[in-house]
Amino acid sequence: MSRIIMLVPLNENINLTTITSSLIYLISKRKKNIFGKSCFYFSLISNLMDKTRLVMKKYFFKNIISLENIDFSKQYFNSKKYHMLVNQVIEQCYHQKDSDGLILIQGINKNQHVYADQINYEVSQNINAEVIFIEYLKAWSVENINEKEHQIKIFLKFYKYKNIAGFIFDNLNSPFIQKKYNFIEKLNILYSYKKNKNILKIEKDIFLKSMCFPVLTCIPWNKNLFRPSVIEICNFLNANIIDVKNIKNFIIKKIIIFNQNNNNIKNCNYSLFLVCFSYLEVFFYEFFIKSKKNKIIGIILTGISKFTKNILYFIKCLKNKNIPILYINTDIITTLSKLQKFNCDINYYNKTYLNKIFKYISSHFQDINFNTFINKTINNKKYSPKKFCFYLKILSKKNIKRIILPEAYEPRILKAAEISNDLGIAECILLGNEKKIFQIASDKGINLSKNIKIIEPNLIRENYISRLIELRKHKGMTEFSAVSQLQDNTVLATLILEANKVDGLVSGSINTTANTIRPALQIIKTNPVYSLVSSIFFMLFPQEVLIYGDCAINVDPTAEELAEIAIQSANSAKIFGIEPRIAMLSYSSGHSGIGFQVEKVRNATAIVRLKQPNLIIEGPIQYDAAISRHISQLKLPNSSISGSANIFIFPDLNSGNITYKAVQRSMDLICIGPMLQGLRKPVNDLSRGASIDDIVYTIALTAIQS
Fold this sequence. Notes:
Blueprint: E1 3-9, H1 16-29, E2 38-43, H2 51-60, E3 65-66, H3 80-95, E4 101-106, H4 116-126, E5 130-136, H5 142-158, E6 164-172, H6 183-191, H7 204-210, E7 215-220, H8 230-237, E8 240-242, E9 254-258, E10 271-276, H9 280-289, E11 298-302, H10 309-320, E12 325-327, H11 332-339, H12 351-364, H13 370-375, H14 385-398, E13 402-405, H15 411-423, E14 427-431, H16 434-443, E15 453-455, H17 465-472, H18 479-485, H19 489-498, E16 504-507, H20 513-524, E17 534-540, E18 545-549, H21 559-575, E19 581-585, H22 596-611, E20 616-621, H23 623-627, H24 629-635, E21 647-649, H25 653-667, E22 670-677, E23 683-685, H26 692-705
Parallel strand pairs: 1-4, 1-5, 2-3, 2-4, 5-6, 6-7, 9-10, 10-11, 11-12, 13-14, 13-16, 14-15, 16-23, 18-21, 19-20, 19-21
Antiparallel strand pairs: 8-12, 17-18, 17-22
Helix pairs in contact: 1-2, 1-12, 14-26, 15-26, 19-20, 21-22
């Protein structure tokens, strides 16, 4: 099983490419992969924007498998396209889940998307990634550390990440963090940079232990790694270049604009000059005839639209002196304005320099105990809502099932059938008049595929009269009453299911729960293993999927019935890969309260433990103690679920139905269900307020059940 680690930048002032590339460098240099057999990488920005991918292609391509980037940079947060991209991330990770290695994901930066924090959070939580946050730190001082700790506390209070591996603090003591500088200002600061010796320092070990969150390492800013090259400037300006030997090694320390008023500039060694083509002759005379001691690193000739013999002559002379010459048709002011926006965090064109920076940064990763980090227990038992929905689709596709939909004149049903068919979730069968169905679909802009089978009910009703009489003869069913009941398409669809001509049934978008369930109980009947039929809802909370039962069928179950509902719910959870941790809900936790309802829940819990001793169950327990580890320790310190319940069994229909609707509507949750349990064949009821997504996922549930 592959581990997923996501690097999440918390600030624009983060050298995300260097951190990611250095981690990849460390992995690629190890003889034995510390994370497993293979390492996969992808980012949340386009391939063209991703500089880490550029580095990988040049130097690490053989060691690291590069997956296709999924670009969030141009998508508005929470749009339909955005949610499609989140599903693509889940799918890409799913396809590598059995590769026994590492999936390394580079998050999106704030300068790439205004909603970067929200995107990184939602993506990481939906794939259960272990998150490494990357943040800057101005200085190794008490004041700056306290300020940063306060900022992070606020951030983590708002974004409740599940699996935090730790923090990497970058750019420690960098002079560029105080405010935003343009490129030329950065060069000038660098040229005169001196360490501030007056900062009150604290010991590193004290710092690491004092933080309320895990700190993996701190990377001090290194002046020697700030090395913009002539070739990078050329590529950034999209300028033409007259090449010279070893141009990748030409590193700039200063940029000077040359004109006739400053032709006696001193200290211009390793400078890049901006020179208007009309001043080229004067420039050549001042720096190469009059003075021969200057070590000019390069020249940008501006305003050149065509070459004259004079310009060509001086260019030839400069080339003979092994000086790179860039030429561009924009004027000096325009060129300078663009140049000020250049960001030179890393020189991607000099392998020697890259090795140096990667060795420097990865050396600070040596402080991380990777063995402890790798072997720590990660809670991967929780499904995020999108991941759960993705697995529903995956599981339903394994064996395509035939699902009958008797409410074929409802537009939501038709749209859900279209989506289910397109995704390969199920083979949907519509019960109704073909001409009327296609007319409704056309009016609503629904493109029904020819693969969707339509059964005309009036042509087959009489085929099921005798079977209905046989099944209900003990209740005095006559031919007249059978003909009358078969006018109801739900009854007819239930008989088609009973005859094994379809695999499952979904109804209830325009009918009551009773109209869906009554025919199922009368015709399909209860599975011999169980004594009753119950229901569960899958509540898709932002961070995980919880199961509520029974909120639709049993009004006031006895202790024995409540125990069976709990066992049915646990068995259903296992079908969908959820490890059941059951909370038998009450207004009392443990022995804090007394009363008939509390005793009923206590007895039900005891019955479950007797019948299914391997199930993790607690009851009676209040909802807050079942969902919160902190409250659980206060109310039930020895609880077997310790505030981590994922199945909640309500003591009666009144409390269950009120709770699920209140939570669903107050939090605007997708709520899948009710899914019926205990029938011989799968029949599932829809809420009359069900959305198209609700219907699609209920179709998928039914297909998986069958």
